[in-house]
Amino acid sequence: xxxxxxxxxxxxxxxxxxxxxxxxxxxxxxxxxxxxxxxxxxxxxxxxxxxxxxxxxxxxxxxxxxxxxxxxxxxxxxxxxxxxxxxxxxxxxxxxxxxxxxxxxxxxxxxxxxxxxxxxxxxxxxxxxxxxxxxxxxxxxxxx
Length: 144
What we know:
The protein is an alpha/beta fold.
């Protein structure tokens, strides 16, 4: 499977970075989840994750979808070594959505936390802050 355009893998620090932009929907998340699970199966060591949700225009997900995806990830990752997943948010609406995977992965090998501050996320992930700040230039399609 080809790596989705909004994903980057930093093999030197074992960190997968997801920076969605535009509208985040279930189809897009399912594509990313499929890729992540493929990489988890392929790699011999765990890797951490960082999701930057600050460039989104909207999130088109309902509670049922969020619950199903988070529960699926918890079950799919059971039996694997611990891995960290940091979500960077910039508004209360996104924070409410991120609380679902944070709660549903509690007491599992996926350690999920939400951050309002990039430096705190970098410290928790034990990576240089510059890696998390490095946002590629994204060509956005005009909304009309």
